[in-house]
Amino acid sequence: MTRALQLVALILLGAATIVLIHYTVWLPLACEANVTRAFDALDSVADRNDIAKRAASQHAESVLRGCECLERQDVKLAYARGTILRYRGEPARAIDAYRLALSIDRRPEIYLDLGYAQLDAMDQPGAIKSFATAGAFAPAMLDRIPYADARAAAERSIRATYGAQWLP
Questions:
Q1: Residue 117 burial (C-beta neighbours within 10 Å; 0-12, 13-18, 19+)
Q2: Neighbours of 107 (CB within 10 A)
Q3: Does 53 or 118 have the greater pLDDT score?
Q4: How far is CA 104 from the centre of its chain?
């Protein structure tokens, strides 16, 4: 009887170890590679039309399928999800995904894309605030704002908050 219990315990321990390795080692590594592939697809169409962006977002979404459990821990995964949603024409959900990414790590490129999504959602004050935050982190980000009025408003906001010396 003792041998049978030891065998059952060994089998359960082995199964638990396999599950643990799957969720803590293999899945994060696989998802990291998939996020890189998704960003490659999304970056390749950043300056193209909406049809190309939607196709790339569908491809990126299919590449990321199965990685949802890591979205609250991995900034790149949450950021990619936001970009996918923005390219699919879902700015409200993209804003939520970008905010999730910012809750993990505050990066200027995420603030910039949050601003784009807010403009898509017709939230110009929110977009200018996001652009200003991106520009305060990295002033070169301001050159990536395609709308002169939004860029100027973000620059005014930065100068009002941090002083005239902040921007070159």
A1: buried
A2: 17
A3: 118
A4: 10
Which pLDDT tens digit goes with each residue over 17-55?
887 776 766 677 777 788 888 878 888 888 788 888 888
Percent helix / strand / coil, the chain, rounded to 5: 80, 0, 20
Pick the closest to residue 45 from 30, 66, 63, 59 (CA basis): 59
SS3 label, residue 119: helix
Tell me how far apart the alpha carbons of residues 133 and 71 are, in angstroms, rounded to a whole number.
23
Element (H, E) at 60: helix 50-64
Distance CA 64, CA 72 (A): 14
Q: Cβ atoms within 10 A of the Cβ of 88, count?
A: 17
Closest C-alpha to 80, from 23, 119, 34: 34
